[in-house]
From TrEMBL:
Protein name: FGD2 protein
CDD domains referenced in this protein's UniProt entry, alphabetically: FYVE_FGD1_2_4, PH2_FGD1-4
Keyword entries, A-Z: Cytoplasm, Cytoskeleton, Guanine-nucleotide releasing factor, Metal-binding, Phosphoprotein, Repeat, Zinc, Zinc-finger
Compartment annotation: Cytoplasm, Cytoskeleton
InterPro entries: FGD1-4_PH2 (IPR035941), FYVE_RhoGEF_PH (IPR051092), PH-like_dom_sf (IPR011993), PH_domain (IPR001849), Znf_FYVE (IPR000306), Znf_FYVE-rel (IPR017455), Znf_FYVE_PHD (IPR011011), Znf_RING/FYVE/PHD (IPR013083)
Main subcellular location of this protein, as a coarse class: cytoplasm
Amino acid sequence: QDAIDRKEKRSETFKTAVHGLETDTPALKTEELGRRAPQWVRDNLVTMCMRCKEPFNAITRRRHHCRACGYVVCARCSDYKAELQYDGNRPNRVCQECFIFLTGHTVLEDREGKHKGILEKGAAEVSSRSLLCSSLQLLDKNGKGGTRGWFVIPEDDPLVLYIYAAPQDVRAHTSIPLLGYQVRDMPQSESRHLFQLVQSRQVFTFVADTEELKQRWMKAMARSAAGITDPEEEEEDA
């Protein structure tokens, strides 16, 4: 019992020291995230979420482990799913930062659950002030299935593609930062008009309803990916 008491006292000293740790350095190198199983941070070494810094308690804020980086995080900061290569590409619970890194998607609300401007505005309102908006299909990784939604590049945020489930939704469900991506044309397949966004290992494949719509989207995405936010600027570059 004395040995147990001494060990618990040492753990308590670790808890106060952990508060000053830099939490932006994962146990795994970023290029290893999802590829190797992380070493989990022990529950008794932290008293607060290693992402949002909110203290844990037994009822309303419980401890969870990110399956990508191994950090101890609260339920709100780990309310994401990402496919992890070391686990046979099965979806696993991950923290917000690992979700962004592994999927390339941004998240739609901060850790306090507060609104973040345009992300909380309705699709109809955003579409009325957009560079381009229409229905598209975003294919999954194997190219056999996918999700149809309402896609918008807003005038006041022209470097980001916002994806709504439907044209009248009150908020987007995800977004893709376009800057730095390459737009790739693809041959027509089974009457489907395909094109891609490519950056490093991240690839998004889209299906447009018509060839004309496909070309419009490719032009708009290429402009945003190059950082061109003003049509006059595009004409000068041309």
